[in-house]
DNA sequence: AGGATTACTTGCCAAATGGCAAGCAGTCTG
DNA sequence: CAGACTGCTTGCCATTTGGCAAGTAATCCT
């Protein structure tokens, strides 16, 4: 019963009451994604906010040498969104693609704006989700700068097992900022 | 005449008209900071939004080994703020300290909330500034993961000369994620 | 002024990571 | 089924970066 997850998500920041969540939830609509299906392609504008209730999504960009770099993984309970494109209405620099079959709740940008205008508490909620993502990215940045790749990989295994379980190693490697071969050696264990 | 800078800042996202900017500006008040003065200490809650019109501010955290890591530099025209603490009303993980004498426009959290409630366009503006910061952090993350330290340093010199001019090299080094000695060698030039 | 402290540099060597190419297993495709 | 891919591993060696310690210069403090 994935609607449960939507209600839970809406209440997760503390600014929306159970009764209000019941009123807001119907504006979202349920969607599924096939494996390999794109939510967003570079150059396009993101039109939908998407809360995942199942599956795994990967965001990736191309660096100056054209290499495919994974910029994020989004799993159950997370918002799979390219923030900058969605809110600034500008073409995305990134792609977002389902790695596995996915399901979730979608809210078009226009509807979100309408809700922002009419519902105080939903505005608060929207900002809180944004701030949460910001803090998570800062934490990841700090870890990238201060910790060796082996430690970052262990943290990923501990805190995001779904990613390690379902994403190909090459995507995990570029997410961690290392090469396929280095990740392979890290996984093999200490010493070698 | 630093009020000019405040008006310009308020109009920078396109959601606030010149006339509206004139009405909103008086809610900010002008402040200065001595060199070394702290805007925020780890463990405290951030109470003020601050737009800098002059000077340089450094944000820093301590990693798991207790090392002082610079997480950001804020200069003229930028918002010196620990987003997570300010918006979520939680104790900050980071410190913010003036590196040089600073001046800027301050808006207490309570006033910002009041403005958010009463002024539609100011809400839009607030979100746009947040989104802008988010995008900048993502770009920095991508660069950290894909480019060697020497290139990241050159970019910093090119895009943020004030930082290189006023911040001690050890702070720049930790910001780039390298040691003092590595930065010293990078600065000396290629080859050696 | 004298003595401490701080910022930066440099030399020496070790550790972390990358680049490249080969090999191997699984999968997809016609 | 055969051939082509794709994902992953591994060996060999180069490059990048770190750790440590010494040295120098500048600044601070009283």
Which terms summarize this structure?
192 residues; 9 helices; three-stranded antiparallel beta sheet; homodimer; Jelly Rolls; alpha+beta; DNA-binding; four-stranded antiparallel beta sheet
How would you summarize the topology of this molecule?
Two copies of one chain form a homodimer.
Chain A: H1 2-10, H2 18-24, E1 29-33, E2 38-40, E3 48-54, E4 57-62, E5 68-74, H3 83-88, E6 95-98, E7 102-108, H4 109-118, H5 120-146, H6 149-159, H7 161-166, H8 169-176, H9 180-188
Antiparallel strand pairs in A: 1-7, 2-6, 3-7, 4-5, 4-6
Chain A binds a DNA duplex (30 and 30 nucleotides) through helix 9.
Plain-language structure description:
Chain A contains nine helices and seven strands, in the order ααβββββαββαααααα. With 192 residues, chain A is of the alpha+beta class. A four-stranded antiparallel beta sheet of chain A has the order 2-6-4-5. In chain A, strand 4 and strand 5 form a beta hairpin. The structure holds a DNA duplex (30 and 30 nucleotides).
Please outline what is shown here.
Two copies of one chain form a homodimer. By secondary structure, the first copy, chain A, is α+β, with helices and mostly antiparallel strands.
Could you estimate the helical fraction of the residues of chain A in percent?
40-55%
Query: Based on DSSP secondary structure assignment, what is the total number of beta strands of chain A?
Result: 7
Biggest beta-sheet profile of chain A:
4 strands, antiparallel
Rg of chain A, Cα atoms, Å: 18 Å
CA(first)-CA(last) distance of chain A = 47 Å
**Largest interface, per-chain counts?**
A-B, 34 and 35 residues
The CATH superfamily of chain A is known as Jelly Rolls
Number of helices, where a helix is a run of at least 4 consecutive DSSP H or I residues of chain A: 9
SSE pattern of chain A, N- to C-terminal = HHEEEEEHEEHHHHHH
Regarding quaternary structure, how should these chains be classified? homodimer
The CATH architecture of chain A can be given as Sandwich
Q: Briefly note the CATH topology name of chain A.
A: Jelly Rolls
**Which parts of chain A are unreliable, with pLDDT below 50 for 5 consecutive residues or more?**
none
Helix vs. strand class of chain A: alpha+beta
Q: What's the CATH C level of chain A?
A: Mainly Beta
